Amino acid sequence: MINAHRILERIELLATCSKLSKGVTRLSFTKESMDAENLVIDWMQQAGLSVRKDEMNNIIGRYEGRDPDAPVLMIGSHLDSVIDAGKFDGILGVIAAIEVVQALINSKVVSEFPIEVISFCDEEGTRFHTTFLGSKAIAGTLKEEDLQMQDDAGISIASALNDVGIDPTNFRAATRSKKDLLGYLELHIEQGPVLQEKQLPCGIVSGFASASRHILHVEGRAEHAGTVPLTSRKDALVGAAEAILFIEKNAKRNNGLMATVGKLVVEPGASNVIPGFVSFTLDVRDIIESRKLRFLQEVFEKIQEICHDRKLVFQYERILEIPSVMCSKRYVALLEEVFKENDIPALEMISGAGHDAIAMSDITEVGMIFVRCKDGISHHPDEHVSLEDIEMGTRLLLESVLKIVMNEGV
Ligand SMILES: [Zn+2]
């Protein structure tokens, strides 16, 4: 029923819709993304779906059920990529969803409920520094001011929409009502090493970790590297280093919590000057909100102490806060059943990465299947998923869709 070779061929073809780069680079509202959209529209039509683009450039292919007014089960993922990305992130979910509906049509399965394959516009947020553009528009959580976000060339989302022939003032028309939707299922690569370590082809996402991002500033005094004794220095970088080591140590005490310092700016940044000012980012993710907050409090208190001892000044600011989201318990249970029927241990996983399912959870029940990717590599040209895993993931998606639509929404 599932033609994994066809899925892989399509993934390879979509990878050619890219700016010239080391990997796949397909930002939203570009020639590359329009080429990819046209392929997807073509494949949806070939499968027998009626296809439209909504007011936020999402592509929607609909397979009608017996009752056209019944709520819709949506399945899909996103088409855009980061810079120098792999071929599978997002894409696999869109192409597998087309394959699922193709299989239903080929077997003449008609359910009560319509099924829509969705290819979301701009999940990664690479171009406009914002995420979940298409899925937020559908969920009704996108705000007018979000459309004023600009890319590095100063082009806003609103004018990029205009450029592809979509009136940005209409964006609210893309919003679906809660009663219109039965649920949302997404198939996506894991983007981490857990499934490979456990030797499993697929896993079940039970929730999405909350994420906090802060910028921390440590201020000392920039002085001559050759004349000021070590005992009387106010070295901001040594203070920041001690802080970063504490962040790692404290994170290791909390199994499941992720803490990362990914960017460090040292000023004045000269080899013969004692660092006078350091700012660094702190990204913390955890499914347990209260534990994350406690962790942050401990970190800030400890850094305050470190800075006090070293006569440095410490300040911090929050730049991002995303609450944790749980998948639908009913869908998790249903996916567990499908996994067991296929003799695959049902491993429940917390996603540390963001996905369209998070935005969709604001209006409907969401479920998500992760597919193993080689060595956990993602957002990189070496991203790879085996043909066997593509086949298994798509089969699990198909059987889950069947269970949902045949059981009257479970
Ligand atoms: Zn993705």
UniProtKB/TrEMBL annotation:
Keywords: Hydrolase, Manganese, Metal-binding. The keyword Nuclease does not apply. It holds the Pfam family Peptidase_M20. SUPFAM superfamilies: Bacterial exopeptidase dimerisation domain, Zn-dependent exopeptidases. Homodimer. Belongs to the peptidase M20 family. This is Allantoate amidohydrolase.
